[in-house]
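Listing S7. Sequence submitted for prediction.
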Amino acid sequence: MVERTDPGSVGVVAGRVVGALTVVLTVVGMLTQQEGFYRAVRLLLAGLESDFDVPVWVLFWGNIALVATARYAFCYVLGSLLGVAYDWLDRPGIAFLAVVVVLIGVVDAIYGGLGARSVLVGVGYLLAWVAYVPVFAWLLEDGEPMDSGPVRLE
């Protein structure tokens, strides 16, 4: 039997929302540090006395693509794990989930804020994680009875 409101699946969707929000913050943060990236790469290549022929702007945009993909995947997976843990703990309530998500958001906000050298970016990361809770609650639809069985199209 398949449950209609599977917390793991709901966590995946909520994690995708958080992932999309944090990717935007990450890319904006990296774009503000673009000149510093160029300087660091040029110094590194000059120090290695390398004949590396790839333009620095290609490395910069490749770095943005990799970091954005990793950030989205991190939030996707962690969102799923939060949903599975929520179900494993016999659905302890949205308030408990909110506390856990805020703790994760604080850690991510510290990491992201330090990386971007901006308190506002850190607050943005925290708010992105806080957005997980209403999306999860809305999609879970705890108010409805838990029907098991196949989903019928009407």
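Caption to Listing S7: primary sequence and predicted structure tokens for the chain studied. Residues 7-139 form one domain. The chain is about 75% helix and 0% strand.
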